[in-house]
Structure formats: structure tokens, C-alpha cells
Prior knowledge:
Layout: E1 3-7, E2 10-13, E3 18-25, E4 33-39, E5 46-51, E6 58-60, E7 68-73, E8 78-83, E9 92-99, E10 113-114, E11 118-123
Amino acid sequence: QVQLVESGGGLVQSGGSLRLSCAASELLLSKYGMGWFRQAPGNAREYVAAIGRYGFITDYAHSVKGRFSISRDNAKNTVYLQMSGLGPEDTAVYYCAATRSAVITGDVSRYQYWGQGTQVTVSS
């Protein structure tokens, strides 16, 4: 059974940093573009960042550009999201997702596999 498992979430003070990880089982991540999304209570799931299959191409939502960094280690079948300069507006459940699309995308509907999410809470 395909699984994406996020970890690394938690409570952090405003201005702090966290690194999220997304590990896959029964899925060879090197064949997939990967994305991170987040969802705050009452809000729709929103795009955060994406990375191409080989890690050379990345893309970020405007709200996180310059603060977050997405990377991947295909040998470890893991994708990461390094977050710095966190603020209360970043509080959400963060999800990783895998897409068969050859072009990285922020379109939620183009991702076939999703993790269960990890909570990130930023206190002011």
C-alpha cells in the first residue's frame, strides 16, 4: 500500500524554523514530482512548494518564497521542506503529495498520492 508519511511538525515560536520530512513506502519517489501543501482550519488546502523528479526544478508560493526551501533525497526516498522565518500565518496542517505530472504544479487535483499531514503551530 502506497504511503507518504510526514514528520517534523510541532510548536515553534514566531521567527523560528522547522524541517518537515516526507518519507514514502511502496512508491519510488524518483518517478514523481513532489509537492507540499498546507491547510489551516476553515481554509482550503493551499499550495506551498513543489520540486521536480530530480530536484533541479523547484517552485514556491509567493507567501513562502525566500523563507521555505524544498529538497529531495531520492536515495532515501524522502522529500523535505525547510521552513524558516515562521509566523502565525504559517500555522496549518502540512501535507506532502506526489504527482505523475512531468511538470511541477501547484494544482491540488494533479496530485495522486497524499500523506496524512503534520501539524505546524507557530505562536506569536
